[in-house]
Amino acid sequence: MSGWSDAAYGMGEAVLELDRVSVRYPEASAPTLREVDLSIEEGELVLVVGRTGSGKSTLLGTLNGHVPHFTGGLLTGRVRVLGRDTATHRPRDLADIVGVVGQDPVAGFVTDTVEEELAYGMEQLALPPTTMRKRVEETLDLLGIADLRAAPLRDLSGGQQQRVAIGSVLTTQPRILVLDEPTSALDPTGAEEVLATLTRLVHDLGVTIVIAEHRLERVIQYADRVVEVVDGRVRSGSPAEIMRDATVAPPVVELGRYAAWSPLPVSIRDARRAAAPLRARLGGLGAPLLTSASRGSSTVDTLQGVHSSLTSASRSSLTVPTPGIRATGLRVDHGRVRAVRGVDLAVPAGRVTALMGRNGAGKSSLLWALHGTGTRSAGRVAVTDGSDPATLKPVARRARVGLVPQTASDLIYLDSVGAECDQADAESAKPTGTCRALLDDLAPGIPADRHPRDLSEGQKLALVLAIQLTAGPDVVLLDEPTRGLDYPAKTRLAGIVRGLAGHGHTVLISTHDVEFVADAADEVVVMAEGEVVAHGPTPDVVAASAAFAPQVAKVLAPAPLLTVAQVRQALAEAGDVG
Ligand SMILES: Nc1ncnc2c1ncn2[C@@H]1O[C@H](COP(=O)(O)OP(=O)(O)OP(=O)(O)O)[C@@H](O)[C@H]1O
Ligand SMILES: Nc1ncnc2c1ncn2[C@@H]1O[C@H](COP(=O)(O)OP(=O)(O)OP(=O)(O)O)[C@@H](O)[C@H]1O
To answer: Where do the ABC transporter domain residues begin and end (predicted)?
Structure first.
């Protein structure tokens, strides 16, 4: 029996070995992985990075034989896991040593309730009931889901489901953990807690962890090594080495590259040390840099002005914004769970508003209730013309309110990407090619004849976003729209939603992605336990927040700048070209 108490291998020993591994999916014109050589040692935490659709999940899938045993396609070369060859050992033959958390937690669930799911893997390994009981209790506490132990899995919020998926693998105590975007649905604090737990497993117990993640700002400081997948090939090195010219980089690295800091910092702590001269330059733009308590100084005005001009707040600064959608006394009860508790909220037209808050705070329930198709137990909802989306016929509702749900792929049902896009153009009477152009903006180069089922997670999301944005309803509601999207795609999505707002649309985005909020949102609404607890301009809500501050704000505080683009603009406007 395997487990964290019996480390069979010593540090420095290769536990995962890929030897000239290539993977080609059926009907794909080129291999997804090409001749990959990679060796991962006991007790390493390896972060796999790359553009959307670059092959990260495919690489992770080879590590327990999921690729090609379950995905189809041809794998050549050799993969060995603690000496076992995946050609002859199927995933179930490796379940005692490799635990896998996939990108879609729901797809991996095999039981009905939280407790059953946490116990399932251990039952398969025939662990004694007393051990199982103890580990279930520990894991419920570790992941903050003890209150949900008896809850049906289908009733959980997205982040609660992701916590259970991670927990169900931790209980089996595998020597190797493979996690595909494990924090994409977690709130920032929850993500930090999960990563701290994983790091402890690596440091204290020599567990080997391989994580693919797009939100590098959450993970990179914990990584021993970064593996980048580009065009099917991998290169690996220390985080700072790979980040020097990687195709994807977190804001702190982007800032370090811009300011030419050497060595390149990958953590906030290192960046703050390197940033003293930059803070001084920003401080020298006007009067001394001020905290929010003394706003009104020229510097703060200049810097706040930079935020406004980069987002769309300035567009409506002269007029009181018209609400694009308004909720009054809105309440949502799911059985005995009161998810939304009498919310009054006016979401302004012509702006991008972010909806943030802990896992289970009630954000998705609010979005569905605003959309008019979700549960509403009490209260009223009205769009600009006074109509209530819940009482409209589907066609009329689609013109006024559109929702991209967390489980975006539920909205795709045709058999090719091209057919989905053509239908989106036709249904919304847009010129042919509108949807395709939006898709190419978000995830370039997907063949039109590819079956949506075979898209990577980020590509699926990009397709659903493109379809919904083609329809261009008055009110656009997006539920966690950056899962699986790389930084360039997120920048383009920010541009698209700002463009919609610029044309008078109302955009409300529920998200845990603090960097996306800093880039895209004019305003932020924060929910806690079913209530709105804060609503204001983005810098006011996020800049000094422990949970929601983006990396640039942390590095450059007290300057109220949130993104690298804002830093560039502040310096350029001041004629400081460095
Ligand atoms: N079963 C399949 N058949 C054909 N093509 C596939 C299949 N699975 C994946 N692909 C393609 O292989 C490429 C790599 O997909 P993969 O899921 O490994 O990417 P990824 O880097 O994990 O993406 P994301 O960042 O969106 O999670 C994509 O272009 C995808 O469309
Ligand atoms: N169908 C349902 N039945 C019972 N409880 C539900 C149901 N849907 C949601 N809940 C509960 O309602 C609360 C709010 O869930 P909701 O999905 O709105 O949260 P959220 O803020 O969107 O969370 P996340 O950030 O994790 O996506 C949670 O405690 C959740 O468990």
So the answer is: 16-256, 325-554
Q: Based on the number of CB atoms within 10 Å of its own CB, is 14 exposed (0-12), middle (13-18) or buried (19 or more)?
A: middle
Nearest atom within ligand 2 for CA of residue 362:
18
pLDDT, mean of residues 139-165: 94
DSSP label of 436: H
In 271-408, beta strands by DSSP E = 323-334, 337-348, 352-356, 378-383, 401-404
Give the dihedral sign, CA 84/89/90/96. negative
Residue ranges per structural domain of the chain: 14-249, 250-308+551-578, 321-542
What's the pLDDT at 13?
83
Count of residues making up the chain: 578
Q: Closest Cα partner for 470 from 409, 419, 519, 399?
A: 399
pLDDT at 295 over 70: no
CA pair distance 79, 82, nearest whole angstrom: 10
Q: Which two tokens stand for residue 257?
A: 């590259």
Report helix, strand or coil for 139. Answer: helix
* Nearest ligand atom owner, CA of 48: 1
Please choose, from the candidates 28, 24, 34, 2, the residue with its C-alpha nearest in 3D space to the C-alpha of residue 15. Answer: 2
Residue with CA at minimum distance from ligand 1 atom 18: 55
How far is the CA of 52 from the CAs of 114, 249, 401, in angstroms?
Answer: 31, 13, 28
Tell me, what's the ipTM? Answer: 0.96
Ligand nearest the Cα atom of residue 183:
2
CA distances from 79 to 9, 83, 237 (A): 18, 9, 20
Query: Tokens in use for 522?
Result: 């004019």
Ligand 2 atom showing the smallest separation from residue 162 Cα: 26
What is the pLDDT, as a whole number, of residue 3? 67
How confident is the model over 418-450, as pLDDT tens digits?
999 999 999 888 899 999 999 998 899 999 999
Domain 14-249 belongs in CATH node 1.20.1290.10: no
Q: Which ligand is nearest to the CA of 227?
A: 1
Q: What is the DSSP letter of 462?
A: H
Q: Is the pLDDT of residue 10 over 70?
A: no
* CA distance linking residue 289 with residue 365, whole number of Å: 40
Domain 321-542 class in CATH: alpha beta
CB 561 within 8 A of CB 526: no
Please return the burial class of 84, using the count of CB atoms within 10 Å of its CB with bins 0-12, 13-18 and 19+: middle
Q: Calculate the alpha carbon distances from 192 to 100, 159, 168, 182, 336 in Å.
A: 20, 13, 19, 11, 30
**Phi then psi for 115, rounded to 5 degrees?**
-60, -45
pLDDT at residue 331 greater than cutoff 50: yes
73: left (phi over 0), alpha (psi -120 to 50) or beta: left
Within this chain, domains 14-249 and 321-542 share the same CATH topology: yes
Contact 233, 21 (CB under 8 A): no
**Ligand 1 center to residue 342 CA distance, Å?**
42
